[in-house]
Amino acid sequence: MGKKKPIKRRAPIVRVLRFILFLHLGYWGVIAALSLLYSFVNPPVTPLMLQRYLIRGYDWHKRYYVPLENIPSSTQKMVIALEDGNFYKHWGFEFPEIKKAWQRNKKAGRIRFGASTISNQTARTIFLTTDRNYLRKYLEAQATVIMEIIMTKDRILELYFNYVEWGRGIYGIQTASLHYYGRGCANISRDQSKRLISILSSPVLHSPHNLYASASARQRYRMLNRYF
Q1: Which residues, at least 6 apart from 172, have a Cβ–Cβ distance to it below 8 Å?
Q2: The dihedral sign for the CA sequence 98, 17, 124, 93
Q3: Distance between CA atoms of 136 and 130, rounded to whole angstroms?
């Protein structure tokens, strides 16, 4: 009988790379499936909501969903102006801003500054969490690409308005408007809308009623007053 040929074993690095590839394919598949589903169905819950509830103990306020067409165009314009001026022009990323944020974070020695577009923030809000680390940013970037391919810009913006954090356990502009002012977002004043938008930089720590306690919110409010 002839000698048996030795079984060729793949190098450890090849097995590791294959494992990493399969992880990515699985992640991409999940995000793509959810993006397709969320193009037509509103997410019942998000990882951010679960994180805030289970880890920080924030009670969920009753949520109220509002279609994009029922959000005043002035409110939409103010959010886009502050958060992502080129939202309808880019494919999810503002690379000059990313470069600036990278340089500032490198100088600071930790992640302090971001260059998140509305698309990035939406992907983070409905698929991931707000933890500040490079792994989350890496996953967020991939989710953004997939979401931009599958969803329309209007749908991304609608999900942003309805799921972004606006206080402890407060998610979405309609919920926030009713909580802080007792009226829906279409029925509050221009100034009240500005105050709501101003606190998006630190919604857990500040409210529209004490926005002057935050330097960032104060600056955003002044900018809105200047241009709107």
Answers
A1: 63, 64, 65, 66, 161, 162, 163, 164, 166
A2: positive
A3: 8
From first to last of its 228 residues, the chain has per-residue pLDDT tens of 455 555 556 678 888 889 999 999 999 999 999 999 999 999 999 999 999 999 999 988 999 999 999 999 999 999 999 999 899 998 877 755 554 544 444 444 444 445 689 999 999 999 998 888 889 989 999 999 999 999 999 999 999 999 999 999 999 999 999 999 999 999 999 999 999 999 998 999 999 999 999 999 999 999 999 999
Query: Would you state the structure tokens that stand for residue 91, as one six-digit string?
Result: 């494919």
In whole angstroms, what is the distance from residue 70 CA to residue 191 CA?
18
Q: Which two three-digit tokens encode residue 136?
A: 């989350």
Across the chain, where does the E strand assignment appear? Answer: none
Closest to 34 in 3D by CA, of 130, 116, 146: 146
CA–CA separation, 153 vs 192, rounded Å?
A: 26
What does R_g of the chain's alpha carbons equal in angstroms?
Answer: 21
Burial of 106 (0-12, 13-18, 19+ CB in 10 A): exposed
Nearest to 66 by CA among 166, 159, 152: 159
Instruction: Please give the Cα distance from 54 to 56 (Å, whole number).
Output: 6
Please state, in angstroms and rounded to a whole number, the distance separating the CA atoms of residues 94 and 85.
Answer: 10
